[in-house]
Design goal:
The chain is an alpha/beta fold. About 45% of the residues lie in helices and about 15% in strands. The strands form four sheets. A seven-stranded mixed beta sheet has the order 3-2-4-1-7-11-10, sandwiched between helices. The chain has a two-stranded antiparallel ribbon with strand order 5-6. α5 crosses α6 and α16 packs across α17. It is globular, with a radius of gyration of 27 Å.
Length: about 450
C-alpha cells in the first residue's frame, strides 16, 4: 500500500483487500443479508476501478526522485526522531550537549530550545544552561532574576531590561530571541520547586562595566588585552561545570554556542593566508570530557569564501541545497539523527568554506537537527523599552566610545547613533537576505 494516501483511498483499500475487516468496521451494516452475492461482486469491481484511478493519479502527481538526493531521502524515510526528541535522547548517552546556534538573532531556534527546556526530563535531569551570550560578570544578577517570582509583569520587565543593558561587552544586545528566552525561563521557574529551578551560566569575558571606560582608547586597550575568546569561554565553562558537578544533583548540561565555536575541531582561515589553526570552544570541551560530550548542528546555510556573482549573495544552502531539498521532498519539518552512518555525515564539511579539507560532517558534529525549512526562519531585532529616557544618554556615550574601535561610521557617527537609538525600541522582523535565490538552489534538485 502506498506510504501516503488519502482517507478515502484507505477505505477503498480495506474494502477490497480485507472484506471481513470492512464488515467488522461497519458492524455488518454495509451488506444486509438480503443483498445478493452478484451485487456484492459488482460493487467490488467498481471499487477496484476506483482504486486504479486513485493509484494512477497518485503516481502522476509524485515527483521523480533525483538520483543526487536519493540516498538522503531513503535515509530520512527510515528515521523517526523529531528534532526535540533526538536532542533529548543525547542526554541518555552524554553528559554535555552542545547546540550550534544559527544567526544569533534567528527566532525559531529558540522556540525549539524553549520546547526542550520545558520538558520534565530536562527540568529533572539537566537544568543548567551555558551560553555564549552574556558576560560571566552578570551571572549572579541574571540568576537572581531567573529565580525571582515577580508580583507583576512590569516588575519582571524592568529587571530584565536592567540586565539586558549590561549583558555583554558591547554597548547593547538587540536580539529579541534571547530576551524572550530569559523571560520565559523566569516564568517557568515560578512553576517548579526550588531545587529544580533552571540556571544560566554566561561564558563570555569578565567585563569591568561601562562606567570604567571614558574613552575609545581605554576600551580598545582593555579589549585587546583579553585572551582568545574561545579559550576564555572554554575555561569559564570548565570552571563553572566543575562547580555544578560538586554542588548539584543534576550532572548534565546544555551549552549554546554560535557557528564555529561549536565545532569539535579547530579550523584554519586560508583565505587570509593563515595556516594557523583557530581554536574552537567545543574542541576544548571535547578534550576535557572525552566520551561525555555531543554537539549538534542545527539546519542553517553556509557561506562562500567570496561573493558569488552568479547569485549576488555570499550565503548558500549546505551542500548546494541537496540537504534542504531532501527534507522538502518528503515534507519533513522536524527531525534529528546521528551523522555517523548517515549519508549526510559523509559529505565534505562545507560549513567552514575558508579552508580546504577532506574532513566530513561526522568529524565535526555528533548529530544533525532539522527544525523548520529556511522559508520559516526569521529574525527579530529590537527590545521595546530598552532605550528608556534615563538610559538614552548613557547608551549614546557607549556608542561614541565603541564605534571608533571598530571603525564604524566615524564620519557620520552622530546621525547613525541617533538612528540606532530610535530603532532599538522597535521590534523589526527580518527574513534571510535574498531568500528566493537560496530557494532556487534547493528546488533545482526537485525539478
Amino acid at each position: 500500500m502506498p506510504a501516503k494516501c488519502s482517507c478515502g483511498f484507505q477505505l477503498i483499500w480495506v474494502r477490497l483487500v480485507y472484506p471481513d475487516k470492512w464488515a467488522l468496521r461497519t458492524r455488518q451494516r454495509a451488506i444486509p443479508e438480503n443483498v445478493s452475492n452478484h451485487n456484492d461482486k459488482r460493487m467490488r469491481r467498481i471499487l477496484f476501478f476506483i482504486l486504479i484511478i486513485f493509484n494512477t493519479y497518485a503516481c502522476l502527481g509524485q515527483k521523480k526522485l533525483n538520483n543526487e538526493i536519493s540516498s538522503y531521502v531513503h535515509f530520512l524515510q527510515k528515521n523517526s526522531y523529531s528534532a526535540k526528541e533526538y536532542i533529548m535522547t543525547l542526554w541518555d548517552k552524554y553528559d554535555i550537549v552542545i547546540f550550534c546556534e544559527r544567526f544569533h538573532g534567528e527566532v525559531t531556534q529558540y522556540n525549539l530550545l524553549l520546547d526542550i527546556i520545558k520538558d520534565e526530563r530536562f527540568i529533572s535531569n539537566i537544568g543548567n544552561i551555558y551560553t555564549e551570550i552574556g558576560s560571566i560578570t552578570i551571572q549572579q544578577d541574571l540568576n537572581i532574576f531567573l529565580q525571582t517570582n515577580y508580583s507583576n509583569e512590569e516588575l519582571r520587565k524592568d529587571q530584565l531590561l536592567n540586565i539586558y543593558r549590561n549583558l555583554t561587552f558591547s554597548p547593547y544586545w538587540e536580539k529579541y530571541n534571547f530576551y524572550h528566552f530569559l523571560s520565559s525561563i523566569n516564568m517557568l521557574n515560578n512553576t517548579v520547586q526550588e531545587s529544580l529551578k533552571l540556571k544560566i551560566h554566561p561564558l563570555s569575558f569578565e567585563f569591568p562595566g561601562w562606567e570604567n571606560f571614558k574613552t575609545s582608547t581605554e576600551y580598545k586597550n582593555w579589549f585587546y588585552e583579553q585572551p582568545n575568546f574561545d579559550s576564555i569561554m572554554a575555561v569559564n565553562f570548565i570552571k563553572q561545570y566543575e562547580i555544578q558537578l560538586k554542588n548539584n544533583v543534576r550532572k548534565k548540561a546544555l551549552v549554546i554556542l554560535n557557528y564555529r565555536h561549536a565545532f569539535s575541531k579547530d579550523v584554519k582561515n586560508e583565505m587570509q593566508g593563515n595556516s594557523i589553526y583557530i581554536p574552537n570552544t567545543a574542541r576544548y570541551i571535547f578534550e576535557k570530557y572525552p566520551q561525555k560530550v555531543a554537539n549538534v548542528l542545527l539546519n542553517t546555510w553556509t557561506s562562500l569564501p567570496v561573493n558569488n556573482p552568479d547569485i549576488g549573495d555570499p550565503h548558500v544552502p549546505i551542500q548546494g541545497g541537496k540537504w534542504d531539498a531532501s527534507f522538502k521532498y518528503i515534507g519533513i519539518k522536524s527531525m534529528g539523527f546521528d551523522f555517523e552512518n548517515s549519508p549526510f555525515g559523509y559529505d565534505t564539511f562545507d560549513l567552514w568554506p575558508f579552508s580546504t579539507t577532506e574532513l566530513k560532517y561526522k568529524d565535526f558534529f555528533t548529530g544533525f537537527v532539522f527544525y523548520l525549512p529556511l522559508t520559516e526562519h526569521y529574525e527579530l531585532y529590537g527590545i521595546p523599552g530598552l532605550v528608556s529616557n534615563d538610559f538614552r544618554e548613557e547608551l549614546r556615550r557607549r556608542l561614541e566610545i565603541f564605534n571608533p574601535v571598530w571603525n564604524w561610521d566615524t564620519q557620520g557617527q552622530k546621525s547613525e547613533i541617533n538612528k540606532t537609538l530610535k530603532q532599538l525600541n522597535r521590534l523589526q522582523k527580518e527574513r534571510y537576505y535574498k531568500l528566493n535565490r537560496k530557494l532556487k538552489l534547493i528546488d533545482k534538485w526537485l525539478n
